[in-house]
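Try this one yourself first.
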């Protein structure tokens, strides 16, 4: 059974930082590209970042987070991380880690003063 369990969300002030983590299980993690998407109320789902399989040599970032976010993976520990800096109110959303067609339950990120 494929599972993703996210953690690390919370309330942070604008300009602050958060590190999201995700533990994956139930599949050969190292064989798959994985990523993070976010969903805010009333907005379309946005693919924030993804990372290629195995050594994670290739990465993608949406324009809205480029330069502020870093994705990484540890294929020995089946974990994916998303380091987010200089957070903005528009980053407020539920963040999910995923590999098609599976995703976790998400972790809430709220950026507010």
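Now uncover the answer:
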């Amino acid at each position: 059974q494929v599972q993703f369990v996210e953690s690390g969300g919370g309330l942070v002030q604008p300009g602050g930082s958060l590190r999201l983590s995700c533990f994956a299980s139930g599949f050969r993690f190292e064989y798959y590209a994985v990523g993070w998407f976010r969903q805010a109320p009333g907005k379309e789902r946005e693919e924030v970042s993804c990372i290629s399989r195995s050594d994670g040599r290739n990465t993608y970032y949406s324009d809205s987070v480029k330069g502020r976010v870093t994705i990484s993976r540890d294929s020995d520990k089946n974990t994916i991380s998303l380091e987010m800096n200089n957070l903005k109110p528009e980053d407020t959303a539920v963040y999910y880690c995923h590999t098609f067609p599976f995703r976790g339950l998400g972790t809430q990120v709220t950026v507010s003063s």
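Discussion: The mean pLDDT is 96. The CA atoms of residues 4 and 54 lie 17 Å apart.
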